[in-house]
Amino acid sequence: MVWKPHVTVAAVIERDNRFLFVKEHTPSGLQFNQPAGHLEPDEDFITVVKREVQEETAWQFEPDYLIAIQLWRKNPDSPTFLRLCFSGQCHSHDAKQSLDDGIVATHWLTRAEIAAESHRLRSHLVLSSVDDYLNGERYPLSLLKSFLNYE
Asked: Phi/psi zone of residue 29: left (φ > 0), alpha (ψ -120 to 50 degrees), beta?
């Protein structure tokens, strides 16, 4: 058997000192998370983060920077995640769009409001990513290289 981490992306999106969050159904109940999701076949990292933000929030997202590449496992029996966290700007909200399965609502939360909900965050990476963003962590998207369907 070959071991592979789950490759995911997340977006830290700030507007007027508030961050775009989703409230979603999880196996642990309702939790808060950044717009996030899994890399699918034939997608590059930029494509997947744009798609996930749009599906989960009905906002169009333009990533500007990579904040962090995070390797996380909750405990030895849990799956391992390789998570690429982006920052950028949203535009063109479609209020009529249905949100992705499991998403209950979107919220714009301050850092203090996020911290107050720490018991309901999807993982500790959620607040850590916001703090990395607030601490000025920014890396160029040119770090990411995709070589899909090349011979």
From this structure: left
CATH of the structural domain 6-142, one choice from 3.10.450.50, 3.20.20.70, 3.90.79.10, 3.40.190.10 = 3.90.79.10
Q: State the burial class of residue 145 (Cβ atoms within 10 Å of its Cβ: 0-12, 13-18, 19+).
A: exposed
**pTM across the whole model:** 0.93
Contact 103, 62 (CB under 8 A): no
Residues 74-122: tens digit of each pLDDT: 888 999 999 999 999 999 999 999 999 999 999 999 999 999 999 999 9
Residue type, 38: H
The pair phi, psi for residue 89, each rounded to 5°, is -120, 150
| Contact of 25 with 40, CB cutoff 8 Å | no
**Domain regions of the chain by residue span:** 6-142
Paired tokens of 104: 């209950």
pLDDT digits (tens, 9 = 90+) for 33-82: 999 999 999 899 999 999 999 999 999 999 999 999 999 998 889 999 99
